[in-house]
């Protein structure tokens, strides 16, 4: 999906940069994109024809998320729609690369885990038959899947209550490497929107407020809400971010330097890139640690199966004699 989305934005950037109005661009895309996209673009065209603004038209498509809609609406208001489309294309390409990198890194531990369940239990086929083997391995795999899926189920349940969501997110942030990845990835996402809105001409306080509201992290929302309040009370950006510990110190320094030098939009991009790099590093460390743990657990399990097999074998021999 993200690969298709990045190409969609590349096409929109090309059409917009050529001077084609958004309504006409939507009409051209509706003729060549998938059915879901086609119907969405036709609904957007109907909104524009009825006198609606671009933001309303984008929401009517049911294609774009809130982050994308806010970026495009700000770009349209600031006359920078081609640049906004190009930034969104790059953003989705980066997301796609991150996803495939994560999947490629967890493939080996995942395969190793299944091999540890399937292979050592093959002896059951000889001893008790295929049905007993399938029952054994399916039972073990079910336990493993329950353990893996439980955090996702807890997260879904916690999302129903802001208090639970904040608590759950803080617990995740405390997990070595995984917490660092989640925190920095979500901060990078919010700073991407902050930069996009600010670079499109949205006033600073409004850009901060909207970037916070669009975040799916309650802790990041609270951070940007505090920043907005401080700025509304007359504090400068350096004063506002100085004591915000959710932001790593080097990110605070970059934002302060950008505000002081008058290059805030440039420093926000640098801060976003730094957070993305550190998030990727943290994820690599977490997956490596997880792989090591799985390898040790698999080795211990195989050793236990081998020892159990030979212990039973020698006991049978002893009883025979």
Structure commentary:
With 321 residues, the chain is an all-alpha fold. The protein has a domain at 2-85: Receptor-associated Protein (Up-down Bundle). It is 83% helix and 0% strand. It is built from 15 helices and no strands. α1 packs antiparallel against α6 (81-118) and α3 (35-49) runs antiparallel to α4 (54-60). The termini are far apart. The model has no long low-confidence stretch (mean pLDDT 86).
What's this model, at a glance?
By secondary structure, this protein is mostly helical. Helices cover 83% and strands 0% of the residues. Helix 3 (35-49) packs antiparallel against helix 4 (54-60) and helix 14 runs antiparallel to helix 15.
What is the mean predicted local confidence, pLDDT? 86
Helix content, binned percent = over 70%
Number of strands: 0
Secondary-structure element series:
HHHHHHHHHHHHHHH
Radius of gyration: 26 Å
Tell me what the CATH architecture of the domain at 2-85 is: Up-down Bundle
Count of alpha/pi helices: 15
Q: What's the main sheet like?
A: none
Strand content: under 5%
The geometry reads as elongated
Q: pLDDT below 50 for ≥5 consecutive residues: which ranges?
A: none
Cα distance, first to last residue? 66 Å
| Class computed from helices, strands and strand pairing | mainly alpha
CATH class of the domain at 2-85: Mainly Alpha
Report the CATH topology name of the domain at 2-85. Answer: Receptor-associated Protein
